[in-house]
Amino acid sequence: MGRKLKIRDLTMRDGQQSLFATRMNQKSIDKLLPYYKEAGFYAIEVWGGAVPDSVMRYLGENPWDRLKIISNAIEGKSYLTALSRGRNLFGYVPYPGSVIGGFYKNAIKDGLGIMRIFDALNDLENVRESVEIINKLGGIADGAVCYTVDPKDGHEPVKQGFFQRLFGGKKPGQQHDKIFTDDYFVDKAVAFEKMGAKIVTLKDMAGLVNPARVASLIPKLKNALSVPLDFHTHCTPGYGLASALVAMMKGVDILDTNIWYFGEGSAAPAIELIYVFAKKLGIEIEADMEIVGKIREELKDIRKGLADFDLNKNSWPKDFDPLKDTLPADIDKCFDKAIAAAEAGKEQELLDACHAIEEYFNFPKPNLIVKEAEVPGGMYSNMVAQLKQLNAIDILDDAMKLIPKVRRDAGLVPLVTPTSQIVGSQAVLLAFDRKQGREDYSTKSNQFIALVKGEYGHTPVAIDPAFRELITGDATEHPYDVYSYEMPENPSLPECGGKRLAVDEEEYLLMQLLPTVAKPFLTKKRQAEFEAEKN
Prior knowledge:
InterPro entries: Aldolase_TIM, Carboxylase_cons_dom, PCB-like, PYR_CT. The chain has 535 residues and is an alpha/beta fold. The protein has helices at 11-20, 26-38, 51-57, 63-74, 97-109, 128-137, 162-167, 182-195, 211-224, 240-249, 271-281, 289-305, 329-344, 347-360, 368-373, 377-389, 396-409, 419-435, 446-453, 465-472, 505-513, 515-534, and strands at residues 4-9, 43-48, 79-84, 114-117, 140-146, 199-203, 229-232, 254-257, 284-286, 492-493, 499-500.
C-alpha cells in the first residue's frame, strides 16, 4: 500500500449527537469498548460537545465517570478526544483561567489525550489560554478552524426606511467583498500552529465545504502547516462524502468518520465507504476493519434502541461489510466514477456519483433547504421550532432570507454553535418585526445584544459603531469581563445529612460549567447516597 490515512472515529460523540440527540447511555457504550480497544483508530472522540450536558440531563449519568470508564477500557491504545469552545468550554459564559485550568487538568487526568478547541468567531484570542494550558498539562491541543461561507448577495427581502438605509449595507444584487477566502482559513490555521496547536483541523460543522473548495484549500493548508491536518465535515447538504474523498486525495493526514449505522445524514461520512475509496486509491486506512465490523454489529442493535430519537428512522441503511460483500457492478462503477471526476475536477459528476452510492445504501438524501440557505441543519430546525412557538411559521421564508443581513450587521459571524442559534433567532425576530410593521431590530434577543456588544469576542468584520449603539445603547465594544464571573455556591443539604452538593472538584466543575443541569443531577445523586446509607 502507499500513503496511510489516520482515522478519528466520532461515533460515540459527534455521531450520536448528530443523529440521536446524544442519548446513548453508558450501558450501550460499555458494549462497544472491548472492540474499540482493538480497532486501531488514531483517535476516538468520546466527550465534549453536548455529552456533559446530555448525560446528566437525560440519562442521569456522570460525564466524568463516562470519560474514566472509556479511558480504563481503551488502555491508551487510541487517543481519546473531546471538543470544547475555548474560553466557553461547554457553556455560553467566558470562564476565567482558574475554571478552564481546573477543567482541563481533570479531563487529562481522567484519560483525555486530545482536546479539540474552537471559537465560534474564529477569534483565536479566545482559545490561546486553552492551548497553553493543555500543552502545559501534557495533552495535545488540536486547533479547529471553523469553516463557513460568505452569505449570498441579494436574497433578503427589501425593507425601506431610515434604519434600512443606515444598516442595510449594499442593495440586493450588489456584490459584497469576500471575507472567507482560502487565505483567511490558512492564516487562522498558521496562527493556531504558532500558538502551540499540535494538530490543526478544518472543522466544517455545517457540511458546507464543497469538493471544489476542498481541492483548493487542503493543499494550501498542507503547504502552510508542519503539524498534521485533520478534516471534519458532515453530510447534511450532500457534500460530505465527496468532500472527504477529495480531502483524502489531496493529502489530508487525519479524517473524521463515523461507523455505518451512526454515519451519513447529518453526521460525518461512514468509514466503510471511505474504506472502499481508499482501497481503490491505494491508501491504507489505519484501522482494523474486521474489528470495525464487530462495532458495526453492536451499533445496529444500539440504534434500534434509540428509535425514539432517530432523526432518520425512515432511512435505515442497508447492511454492508466492505470486507465480505461484493458491490453490484453499477455501484462499484460509481466509486470509480467519483474518483475519476475528483481527479478531473468535475464537481457535479463527483457529487452525482457519491449521491448514487448513498442512495443505494439508503442513506438520507441531501437536505436541499440547508444546502440552498447555506446554514447548519440544526440552525434551520431551531428556527422552525421558534416560529411554531410564535405561531408565525408563515414568515419562515423571510426569516431564512434575512440571515445574510443579520450576519453582516453582526460582523459576519460564522454559523456554528452558539452563533448559529443567535443569528437564527434574531433573523426570526427581525422577520417578525417587519411583519408587524416595526423598525428593524425593534426586538432583540439578549444573546444577540451580547454578541454585538463584544462579549463573545472579536467578529471577523468590525461591527458598525452606529449599529452597536442601536442594539446595545453604546457604540463602544465591551468584551466580557471574566473577572466578573462568580463562583457558584456549594450548599450543604440538611435533607441529606448535611453533605455538600458537590463532594469533589470534578462535581464542583460541573456546577461551574452547567449549573442548571448539574444542580438537580447532583441533588438527586446525594439523595440516593443518603437513602442507601440509611438502609
